[in-house]
Design a protein that fits this description.
Layout: H1 2-38, H2 44-130
Helix pairs in contact: 1-2
Length: 131
């Protein structure tokens, strides 16, 4: 589970880097579009293509950011599950320790019971012999 958390974190970082890269590309495309619009010899078709490219880049950036948020939520969920698992592991170890103590106490009590039975048998034998 910890490996999944590390992998998710690595993927989230990679996606964040790609989003940053897309944002730079969007800025570059906007600058290029502005330059092209200022030039009088640029055709309307080229401007239209640049606008489409810009919109596509923005759409990809928004989608990547949504993916990053989803991955961060998943990482948080996995982290919480890992903490819960760790807490349960500690509790299991505590219960195992309590069980071991109970087992030792049970053995001690069984030994005392056996000694008691032997003492009772001895008293019964003595009582029988004295009768």
């Amino acid at each position: 589970m910890e490996d999944q958390l590390k992998e998710g974190s690595r993927v989230a970082t990679a996606l964040k880097d790609r989003i940053d890269s897309f944002e730079v590309k969007v800025g570059d495309l906007q600058s290029l579009l502005e330059e092209k619009e200022m030039e009088s010899h640029v055709s309307e078709e080229e401007i239209s293509k640049l606008k489409v490219s810009l919109q596509n880049a923005v759409d990809v950036s928004v989608a990547r950011e949504a993916d990053t948020v989803t991955l961060q939520e998943r990482i948080t969920e996995l982290d919480n599950r890992l903490k819960t698992g760790s807490d349960l592991h500690v509790r299991i170890k505590e219960m195992e320790s309590e069980l071991e103590k109970s087992s030792q106490l049970q053995k001690k009590l069984e030994g005392e019971l056996e000694s008691s039975k032997e003492a009772q048998q001895k008293l019964e034998d003595e009582l029988e012999t004295s009768s």
